[in-house]
């Protein structure tokens, strides 16, 4: 991750080419400033106009923003619309035969779905959900491979007003159970198996395991999409139904449920610094508007684009920039089931050539790993169709940025480094590519209408060059509405008292450079960012502590060349501290345990054992010291509050 020193030395500026600027949806800094000025002088008028331009309303709204019950803001609250209608029906007149999705499966086979076909498949599946008694407001958990059907499932929920909660297919049965339970889901949609990198994962069996753990009585049916030929080991005639049998013979037209603008569209769980993952609840209209504004401004959407976002629908990026954003604006998009390294590290580049991709959006971690595995591989492919590149999920180091720019973008494609979060629903800080000159490593300037500030602990603005906390000072349409079932936690987490409850606290530290550009430095809380995936240290610690061998555990992040950050766990066992081969064996068991409790993405890279953990006299674990030890750094800070200083020496030599 970049340090303030190194980023302050970054002086390279890449303005858009004349050609890009002239054709861009927002052209030049004049275009950017005009939009910002409108937002500054008439905030509600600005958002109201965009909502009328980019959203199709069943019943127009008369009120833009209601701040009376802050921070529970309401946008366009008396308007009615349906997100699925906006993604499908409204395109039928002009682009029914346009390809909506080019699907490339793990094995390389390709299928295409037009807007008309997608519309009918969504309608038919929506009728399937209805036939099982799903009604507006019911929760549906989606635990699917990254296929067209996952998007159909999400769109079908949106169509009938059911609230979907997608659980990433890489999460384990335990994590799935927690989410089903918190959402009190009525239906789980899964597949017999998912296939990635040539390997199958038995999602149906994992769903059975999740339900078997207990306390999932709310689930009435499990719908199973048949992705492969393999038969699930267990099948319950009363509780399981195959997707294809459910929809058989059902009408392929389904009137959308007209939703109030503020009705929830979905809940997506994400990690925080404390407790269990939080159910981030998004609205219908405001959320959807955020995706459309950014498709137009940040991704500079053009009718003949072939757009490809490599995220999985299990994350917010897959929600906003696969399931809703591109379909809402009527784009042709690529959906890829597999992994970037299978069958080799040229897969992304081969697919860009094959599908003539124009707009490519991926994560820095993928870029770094592909540089390492084959920095020259892209030269074997014709990448000249590309016109715009994007990154998301974590800071990108200037070296990786330059490689992306030169080797992938041929020096001609602007890079939009987009900063945002599960909670913000859509891009917040990112260059508008035809206007803002980019700098390697900076996400540059906020989108027009997004009011950011970098402040100290008291909420006072911080001068350029100094690190502070990134906040958003005014509500915006795609902002999280609440934490599902926990309004109090929503308020205290995101609108804390230290800022008088007025600012949205992002949880990232950042600083401005001399051009007013924003540089994200990383999280200020106990949240790790491993390969662009957000993980709470607490979650991993609780998983470890639930193992019968473990007395106590503390988890910290350590910078990692490819993953950005990696997980290091310090563990105290109930018995003696293990060393040598015994230690290695237990460490292996604990890594497998974490994979089973949460998922492989949360597995510690390193586990170290100690007789104890460094604690203050009041019993608080001093994680910053553990971070030093994990990095192999000298401890230069004050340790006078430490109860047991001798433990530092032991932990320093505890590498197995
Ligand atoms: O720390 C920031 C980092 O990812 C966090 C949000 O994670 P999540 O909710 O999982 O959403 C990821 C995809 C939007 C942020 O708090 N982050 C995201 N984008 C960037 C970033 N850090 C630096 N630069 C980015 N472009």
UniProtKB/TrEMBL annotation:
ATP binds at residues 393-395, 417-422, 508, 523, 534. It catalyses: acetate + ATP + CoA = acetyl-CoA + AMP + diphosphate. It comes from the Bacteria. GO terms for molecular function: acetate-CoA ligase activity. Mg(2+) binds at residue 550. Keywords: Acetylation, ATP-binding, Ligase, Magnesium, Metal-binding, Nucleotide-binding. Residues 32-87 form the Acetyl-coenzyme A synthetase N-terminal domain. Acetylated. Deacetylation by the SIR2-homolog deacetylase activates the enzyme. CoA binds at residues 196-199, 317, 531. Residues 539-620 form the AMP-binding enzyme C-terminal domain. The keyword Metal-binding applies. NCBIfam families: Ac_CoA_lig_AcsA (TIGR02188), PRK00174.1 (NF001208). This is Acetyl-coenzyme A synthetase. It comes from Iodobacter arcticus. The lineage of its organism: Bacteria, Pseudomonadati, Pseudomonadota, Betaproteobacteria, Neisseriales.
């Amino acid at each position: 991750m970049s340090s303030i020193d190194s980023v302050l030395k970054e002086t390279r500026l890449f303005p858009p080419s004349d050609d890009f600027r002239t054709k861009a949806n927002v052209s030049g800094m004049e275009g950017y400033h005009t939009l910002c000025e409108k937002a500054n002088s008439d905030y509600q008028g600005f958002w109201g106009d965009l909502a009328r331009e980019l959203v199709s309303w069943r019943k127009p709204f008369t009120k833009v923003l209601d701040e009376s019950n802050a921070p529970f803001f309401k946008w366009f609250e008396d308007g009615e619309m349906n997100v699925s209608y906006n993604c499908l029906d409204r395109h039928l007149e002009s682009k029914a035969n346009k390809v909506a999705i080019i699907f490339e499966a793990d094995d390389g086979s390709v299928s295409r779905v037009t807007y008309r076909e997608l519309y009918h498949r969504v309608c038919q599946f929506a009728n399937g959900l209805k036939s099982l008694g799903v009604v507006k407001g019911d929760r549906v958990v989606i635990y699917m491979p990254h296929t067209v059907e996952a998007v159909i499932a999400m769109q079908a929920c949106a169509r009938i007003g059911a609230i979907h909660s997608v659980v990433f297919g890489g999460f384990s049965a335990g994590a799935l159970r927690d989410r089903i339970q918190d959402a009190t889901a009525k239906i789980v949609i899964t597949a017999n198996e998912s296939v990635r990198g040539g390997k199958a994962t038995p999602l149906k069996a994992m769903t059975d395991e999740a339900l078997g753990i207990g306390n999932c009585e709310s689930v009435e049916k499990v719908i199973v999409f048949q992705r492969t030929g393999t038969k699930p080991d267990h099948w319950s005639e009363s509780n399981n139904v195959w997707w294809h049998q459910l929809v058989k013979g059902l009408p392929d037209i389904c009137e959308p449920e007209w939703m109030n603008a503020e009705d929830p569209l979905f809940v997506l769980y994400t990690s925080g610094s404390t407790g269990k993952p939080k159910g981030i609840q998004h609205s219908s209209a405001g959320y959807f508007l955020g995706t459309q504004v950014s498709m137009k401004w940040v991704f500079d959407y053009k009718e003949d684009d072939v757009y490809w976002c490599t995220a999985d629908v299990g994350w917010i990026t897959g929600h906003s920039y696969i399931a809703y954003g591109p379909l809402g604006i009527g784009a042709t998009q690529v959906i890829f089931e597999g992994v970037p390294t299978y069958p080799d590290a040229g897969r992304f580049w081969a697919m860009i050539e094959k599908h003539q991709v124009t707009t490519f959006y991926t994560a820095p971690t993928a870029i770094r790993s592909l540089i390492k595995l084959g920095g020259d591989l892209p030269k074997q492919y014709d990448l000249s169709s590309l016109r715009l590149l994007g990154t998301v999920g974590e800071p990108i180091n200037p070296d990786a940025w330059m490689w992306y720019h030169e080797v992938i973008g041929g020096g001609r494609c602007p890079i939009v480094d987009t900063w945002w979060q599960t909670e913000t629903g859509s891009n917040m800080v990112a260059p508008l590519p035809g206007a803002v000159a980019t700098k390697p490593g900076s996400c540059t300037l906020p989108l027009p209408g997004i009011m950011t500030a970098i402040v100290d602990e008291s909420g006072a603005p911080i001068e350029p060059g100094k690190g502070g906390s990134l906040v958003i000072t005014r509500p915006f349409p795609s902002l999280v509405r609440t934490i599902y079932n926990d309004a109090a936690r929503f308020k205290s987490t995101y609108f804390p008292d230290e800022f008088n409850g007025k600012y949205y606290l992002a949880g990232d530290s950042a600083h401005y450079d001399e051009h007013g550009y924003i540089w994200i430095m990383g999280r200020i809380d106990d949240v790790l960012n491993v390969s662009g995936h957000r993980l709470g240290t607490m979650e991993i610690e609780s998983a470890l502590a639930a193992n019968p061998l473990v007395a106590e555990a503390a988890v910290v992040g350590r910078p990692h060349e490819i993953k950005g950050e990696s997980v290091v766990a310090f563990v105290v066992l109930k018995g003696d501290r293990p060393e040598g081969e015994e230690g290695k064996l237990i460490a292996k068991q604990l890594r497998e345990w974490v994979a089973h409790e949460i998922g492989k993405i949360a597995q510690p890279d390193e586990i170290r054992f100690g007789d104890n953990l460094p604690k203050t006299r009041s019993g608080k674990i001093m994680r910053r010291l553990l971070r030093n030890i994990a990095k192999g750094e000298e401890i230069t800070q004050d340790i006078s509050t430490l109860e047991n200083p001798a433990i530092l020496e032991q932990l320093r030599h505890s590498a197995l």
